[in-house]
Write a structure and sequence with these properties.
Elements: E1 23-27, E2 33-37, E3 43-45, H1 50-59, H2 70-73, E4 80-85, E5 90-92, E6 96-98, H3 102-109, E7 118-120, H4 129-151, E8 158-163, H5 166-171, E9 183-189, H6 197-204, H7 213-220, H8 224-227, E10 234-237, E11 242-244, H9 247-252, H10 257-268, E12 276-281, E13 284-285, E14 289-293, E15 296-300, E16 302-304, E17 322-324, E18 326-327, H11 333-336, E19 344-346, H12 357-373, E20 385-387, E21 391-392, E22 398-403, E23 409-415, E24 420-426, E25 428-430, E26 433-438, E27 444-452, E28 458-464
Parallel strand pairs: 1-7, 1-8, 8-9, 9-12, 12-19, 21-28
Antiparallel strand pairs: 2-3, 2-4, 5-6, 10-11, 13-18, 14-15, 16-17, 20-22, 22-26, 23-24, 23-27, 25-26, 27-28
Length: 470
């Protein structure tokens, strides 16, 4: 016998697909947005043909326009315009390949009330995280307001889905934006909360790239967005100890000390994400530590082990305890791990974390179930409420009112002096709740316990005192 229905459902009884009434904003990672020349409309980043990347990273053709000018570094923004989320694969030396966001966006459009509920937030990823975070806050607020008006869902909230550096933007959203009050949850995919050692390697030498190292260094050294990915965890191996990278280190290896200081300050000021759910890449060999010798950076395939007190673990001979660095191939596991809550691990490369079927299923499940996950379980009400006095007269009946119970409910009374249950029976329903008449047999201390609906029992102590004892 089949468990599926053979006959079609009548329209008024047809089960609906599980969708969210909320508005969604997809925030891509670094180099995950198309960029255009604002005056000519020429595409600067995000072209479809791979031949462009061959020319760009092989000979440097077309890269000059991506470098920040002195005007842009001083805050005069507008020469470059951000477009849609990346629609075609792209690749960056050292940071590796970047997959398009079309699959993720399409999957999300299938679990909302209307595709208009999904906004792809393209941004100029060359610029500072704090600057782009302000733009994100405004774009998200405008998107939510328009979605509420269009849908009629006045109680709709925001769901932010961020890949890689996009999570750093979410962390840097200004507190006075008010966005925290209307955000249901934030989902991050491979966000480098603590940075990535590869960013330092990219600023220093460009080793591993066919592009001449000097040209690559000059390009990325102008970009606050690259500096935003610098590691802030203890990654510099000095031999006897490990320490954090400093702005002075960054200047010595070819980056900008000021851009590094600004990036570290933004990270230090980051605020906790609302109902954060994190997916992190694991099982991929990941460069996680650095050695610096006369201004030359070497990325190392190992990391260090912190003790419970925060000190780094050492071997019996006093040397630092090192273990193989793992993560998503770009972001070390520990860097992607949120400050609180257990992340969801996925054996996958960084660029694929927003595209793989497992990652998309993870995001879809949160989007469609986060409101339920934050609320009561099916069959569970708002919680058991118990109304009973602190004192009672032995032999005199009194009423206990119970609310919030779904399904079978029962109560018990325990004589704490005798250490035995003297009453155990079901509650009777009275209107929307339950009520029971209780009589305590003699002076003493009793525990009244009510259970039902999947909750732990709610208990209350009652002291029975005779008139002669008062």
């Amino acid at each position: 016998m089949s468990n599926t229905a053979d006959r079609p459902w009548p329209d008024n009884l047809r089960p609906g697909l599980k969708v969210t009434r909320d508005a969604i904003v997809v925030v891509p990672g670094i180099m995950g947005s198309e960029l255009f020349d604002a005056e000519t409309g020429k595409t600067l980043w995000g072209l479809r043909k791979s031949a462009w990347y061959v020319r760009a990273w092989g000979r440097g053709d077309g890269l000059e326009a991506l470098a920040l000018t002195d005007d842009e570094l001083s805050g005069k923004i507008g020469r470059v315009r951000a477009g849609d989320l990346l629609r075609f694969p792209a690749i960056v030396p050292i940071l590796s390949g970047i997959e398009p966001y079309t699959k993720l966006s399409k999957a999300l459009s299938q679990v909302v009330s209307h595709p208009d509920a999904v906004l792809g937030f393209g941004y100029d990823w060359r610029l500072p995280v704090a600057f782009n975070a302000r733009l994100l806050a405004k774009a998200a607020a405008d998107h939510l307001e328009k979605w509420r008006l269009r849908s009629g869902f006045e109680d709709a909230q925001l769901l932010l889905v961020a890949h890689s550096m996009g999570g750093l933007l979410c962390q840097a959203i200004p507190e006075d934006s008010g966005l925290e009050d209307v955000t249901r949850a934030v989902v991050t995919l491979g966000t480098p909360f603590g940075g990535a050692a590869k960013a330092a390697l990219l600023l220093n030498s460009g080793l591993g790239a066919p592009l001449p190292a000097g040209r690559l260094r000059r390009l990325v050294a102008t970009m606050p967005g690259i500096h935003a990915l610098l590691p802030s965890y203890r990654c510099v191996d000095d031999g006897a100890d490990a320490r954090r990278l400093t702005p002075a280190d960054v200047g010595a290896i070819g980056g900008s000390p000021q851009l590094a200081a600004d990036a570290f300050a933004t990270r230090d000021a980051a605020r906790p994400l609302v109902n954060h759910r994190a997916l992190i890449g694991v099982r991929q060999p990941t460069l996680s530590a650095l050695t610096i010798d006369s201004g030359v950076v070497t990325a190392q395939p190992y990391t260090f082990v912190p003790e419970p007190d925060g000190e780094l673990a050492r071997r019996a001979n006093g040397l630092l305890h090192k273990v193989h660095g793992e993560g998503d191939g770009t972001v070390p596991r520990d860097s992607a791990r949120p400050d609180s809550g257990a992340p969801m691990p996925l054996a996958q490369q960084h660029g694929q974390l927003a595209r793989s079927p497992e990652a998309i299923d993870f995001v879809r499940d949160i989007v469609t179930n986060i409101e339920a996950d934050l609320g009561p379980k099916l069959g569970v009400g708002d919680g058991i409420g118990l109304s009973a006095p602190d004192f009672a007269v032995p032999g005199t009946p009194w009423i206990v009112d119970v609310t919030g119970v779904i399904g079978r409910a029962k109560y018990s009374i325990t004589d704490l002096d005798a250490r035995k249950v003297i009453v155990r029976q079901r509650l009777r329903r009275v209107g929307d709740g339950y009520a029971v008449s209780v009589v305590l047999p003699s002076p003493g201390l009793y525990r009244l316990s009510v259970a039902g609906g999947g909750f732990s029992p709610v208990t209350r102590l009652v002291l029975a005192i005779g008139p002669q004892d008062s």
